Structures are given as structure tokens and as C-alpha cells.
Amino acid sequence: MLMRTDPFREMDRITQQLMGPGTWSKPSVMPMDAYREGDEYVVAFDVPGVAADAIDIDVERNMLTVKAERRPMAKADAIKMELSERPLGAFSRQIVLADTLDTERIQADYEAGVLTLRIPIAERAKPRKVSINAGSGHKEISG
């Protein structure tokens, strides 16, 4: 039997039970990190305990939607649950992507409970040098 003494963890558990798990119509938010790495924009989502086939990634124009569902484990009749803190249900996150990202070439990897999306920066958005044409003649303004 497991014993806990953290009253705040118990309060969090009760709040989660009262609010209920996420559903597809009202999913819970999944935590994420977003950063730029070289010529790519990287977004990492925490989805521990979620099977790769339970993750859905959609891009429509510049709206990225990630949905995941953590399903309950199959339980035998002889199992008596002593403690259940891991939330089950649906999780979702929507992000508006800048027009400077190439949404046609998004790469998704899933490892150790982290979904990592790599979105290349579009060529038109990369910094570039602009050459200056220096004229040798003088222009006269007459009025």
C-alpha cells in the first residue's frame, strides 16, 4: 500500500476528479516548449503514456492542431486500484504558425513521451544580403 503526506497533491487530485478528464469536445491542455534551432522552429509536447497511434497532428493553413488521448490500461478482475493520479482522456493544443514557416515540410518524432515537431523556416523568411548598385554618374534635379 502506498502512503502520501503531500496535502497539495491530494488537492490537485480532487480538483482533477471534479473537473473530469479531457474529452475530445473539451480536451485538457498539454504542456509544450517552442524554440528556434538554426533554420528550424521546434515545438516539443509532453505526452507521456500516450501511444504514437493515439496522437493526431493536423495543419490547416497556419493553424497547427495536436490531439492525443491517454487511454486506460486493460485491467484484470483481480486488480484493485490503490492509487490513480495519472490523468486519462484527451489532450489538445492549437498553435498559430507564422507565415514564415514552411508547413509543407513538418517532421514529427515521438520518443520517451515527447512529441517533437520540426518546422523549417521558409526560404523567403531567411536573412539575406541585398546588393547596392552604386551609380558612377551624377543626377541633376531641375525644377
The N- to C-terminal Cα distance equals 96 Å
Count of DSSP strands: 8
Shape: elongated
Question: What is the CA-atom radius of gyration, in angstroms?
Answer: 25 Å
Report the mean per-residue pLDDT as an integer: 81
Level of helix content?
Answer: under 10%
Total of DSSP H or I helical runs spanning 4+ residues:
1
Order of helices and strands: HEEEEEEEE
Biggest sheet descriptor: 4 strands, mixed
Beta-strand fraction estimate? 25-35%
What ranges have pLDDT less than 50 throughout 5 or more consecutive residues?
none
Enumerate the strands of the largest sheet in spatial order, edge to edge or round the barrel.
1-6-5-4
- Class per helix and strand makeup: mainly beta
What's the short version?
With 143 residues, the protein is mainly β. The protein is 9% helix and 34% strand.
What would your notes on this structure say?
This protein has one helix spanning 7-19, and strands at residues 28-29, 32-37, 40-46, 55-60, 63-70, 89-96, 107-111, 114-120. The model has no long low-confidence stretch (mean pLDDT 81). The longest helix has 13 residues, at 7-19. The protein is mainly beta and 143 residues long. The chain contains one helix and eight strands; from the N terminus they run αββββββββ. The chain starts with 6 loop residues before the first helix and ends in a 23-residue tail after the last strand. The strands form two sheets. The chain has a four-stranded mixed beta sheet with strand order 1-6-5-4, with no helix packed on it. A four-stranded antiparallel beta sheet has the order 2-3-8-7, with no helix packed on it. Helices cover 9% and strands 34% of the residues.
